[in-house]
Design brief:
The chain has about 260 residues and is an alpha/beta fold. Helix content is about 25%, strand content about 30%. The chain starts with a strand and ends with a helix. Helix 1 runs parallel beside helix 2 and helix 3 packs parallel to helix 4. It is globular and about 50 Å long.
């Protein structure tokens, strides 16, 4: 399977971000990708109000992503915001494409490193998997990557690939933690991990928006044995990668961590 990782830098303008998605999805399709993955908060960058852009999954922003997916005949994963409880929003991944239309609401909220996502975001409750061309994908968002159980749950539900969409917070040691975590989750779950983060705003001359996690880049595609087949820097970039999901069964025969796991 050929897939693409679109490491963009979102702005406060959802319409401009749709044009970014169009640009990168068009490039991905031209390169032969069946799926293009965009980061968390592709609809609007963190550090801006989320409640005034949040809309249902059948709202105008999501419908435009669906129309683009249909026009280009490519599956798209992109982070958006949907209405939640108590005036909060949900941090949602929209998945749309040929034969697939689903979504995932971020389960683990980023109440860490001085940021409190739970003040404005209502958590999801359930893992989500979907299938494209016989390959099963699991979904995760940013802080979720610190929680192995979600990745192994997706794997036990059939996932051969786990997608992580992020807008990672900057700070001392944070890039090293991201790199370590995406590799570890591949090994925990014996899945490919497609980790797509927002690019680093500082690479384009804009600084981070206060304490908001606005991205550091370092998107990557990791094999089930923890090797990187693609690893990006901080700048906006499109990576197109071929993976072979059929190798997952072979890896799980050699490294049966899912079969050997015990519950305590």
């Amino acid at each position: 399977m050929r897939l693409a990782v679109a490491q963009i830098i979102s702005s406060a303008d959802p319409a401009a971000n749709l044009e970014l998605i169009r640009d990168y999805a068009t490039q991905a399709k031209a390169a032969g990708a069946e799926l293009v993955v965009f980061p968390e908060a592709a609809m609007r960058a963190f550090g801006n109000s989320l409640t005034d852009v949040a809309e249902p999954l059948d709202g105008p922003w999501a419908e435009k992503v669906r129309a683009l997916s249909k026009e280009l005949d490519i599956a798209i994963v992109a982070g958006m915001f949907t209405p939640g409880k108590d005036g909060r929003v949900r941090n949602t991944l929209l998945v749309t494409g040929p034969g697939v239309d689903t979504s995932y609401d971020k389960v683990h909220l980023f109440d860490a490193f001085g940021f409190q996502e739970s003040r404005t975001v209502d958590p999801g409750t359930s893992p989500v998997t979907f299938e494209i061309s016989g390959t099963v994908f699991g979904l995760a968002t940013c802080y979720d990557v610190r929680f192995p159980a979600l990745f192994t749950a997706n794997a036990r539900a059939g996932a051969q690939v786990n997608i992580v969409c992020a807008s990672w917070g900057a700070g001392e040691g944070k890039a090293e933690q991201w790199d370590l975590l995406v590799r570890a989750r591949a090994l925990d779950s014996t899945t490919f991990v497609v980790a797509c983060g927002q690019g680093d705003p500082e690479t384009t001359g804009a600084g981070p928006a206060g304490t908001a996690p606005t991205g550091i880049g370092h998107s990557a595609v990791i094999t089930p044995l923890g090797s990187a087949v693609a690893a990006l820097g901080g700048k906006p970039e499109l990576a197109v990668v071929d993976i072979d999901p059929s190798t997952v069964d072979e890896v799980r025969t050699k490294l049966p961590v899912l079969a050997n796991a015990r519950q305590f």
